[in-house]
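Quick log. Single chain, no ligands specified.
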Amino acid sequence: MAERTARQKDGDFGETLAAAHLSRHGYDCVAYNYHSRGGEIDIVAQNARYLLFVEVKTRRQGAMVSPAEAVSAAKQRKLLVTAEAYLVAHPTTLQPRFDVVCVELTPAGACAGIQWIENAF
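-> predicted structure:
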């Protein structure tokens, strides 16, 4: 297996930080990297009221595009299709919601900050 790139490692680290952040705020992460024909959802989390479909975007400080700007309309459409597939396979009475967690890393790769955008789209 090929070694993971620095960008992939940053993404994995960002997803780990995002999951911990959601957990600290009362959400249980029930699925990671959920795949369907339509795409992938980084994290599926829930509490007593909401089922979150979470896109995690990780960038190093000074990147040309902010993490939030990286969630394009095309990416949003893929997330919607994948979320529908998840809901068919895992029926729930919880209110679905699409959130984005933006993780910013220092040039050395440490966490510089986390921004959680609820109801992102």
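The first strand starts at residue 28 and ends at 36.
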